[in-house]
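To make this tangible, we now present a fold written out as C-alpha cells:
***
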Amino acid sequence: MLLSWPTWAIHLFTVTEWAVAMGLLWRYGGLIQRRELQVFAVCMGPHLMSGLLILGFHLRGDTMHGLLDVSRLTSFGGSLLLLAATLAMVPMLGRWRSWVWLIVPLGLVWAVWTHWPLLGEHSAAVLRAANVAYLSFLLGLLWVYRTDRVLFSPLTIGGFWFLLVFVAVTIFTTRIAMVEWGLPSLSHADVLHGLSESLLSIANLLVALGVYRQIEARRKPGLFSNAKTGEDPSQ
C-alpha cells in the first residue's frame, strides 16, 4: 500500500466524521421538526459514498482508476444534491422550491452528454464541475442562514466552507508532488497527502461539531451560552 498507517487513519476519520455529521443532522432535523434538514442529511450520502470509493482506490494501491472516476461522478451528483436541498430551504423561492430538484438530473445529463465516457480526463472535468456545484451550494447555504438561523450553526457552515481550504491545499501539494518532485501522484508523497487529507478531516469535524452543539443546546438550554451576553454562539 502507498499510504502509511497515519494517513490511512486520517482517511478513516474523514469518512467517519462525515457519516456522524449525517446522523447528527438527521437527529437535529427530527428534534426541531424540520423535515427539510433530514432530507439534507440524506443528500450528504453521495459524498460519503465518494469517500468510500476513494478508500477502495487507495486500498488497491491506486491501480483501479475506475473507482476514482466513479468517485468523481458521485461527488458531482452529491454536490448537486446538496445545492438542491439547500435551495429547497429558501422561503423566498416559494413554490419554485420544488423545482430546484431538477438541478440534479439536468446536471447529470449534462455531464454524461459533454464528458462521456466519464473516464480519465473526462472524469477530471466532472470533478471541476463538482467543485463549481459545491461552491454554489456554499453560497446557497449562506442564503439559508440569512433567512433561517435555526437550521445551521455558523460552526457547521464554517466546516462546509473550510473544505475549500482542503481543495486549494490539495491542488498545491499535488503540483509539488507531481511537477516538482516528479512523482506519479500525491499518494506517493505520503506526508503531503496526509497533510492535505487532515484538512478535510478538520472540515468534517467542524460540520459535525456544529450540529452536535445545536442538539445539546436544545437538550440543555444555556449549555453553550456566553456568560455575559447569554447568547449561544452555535446559533
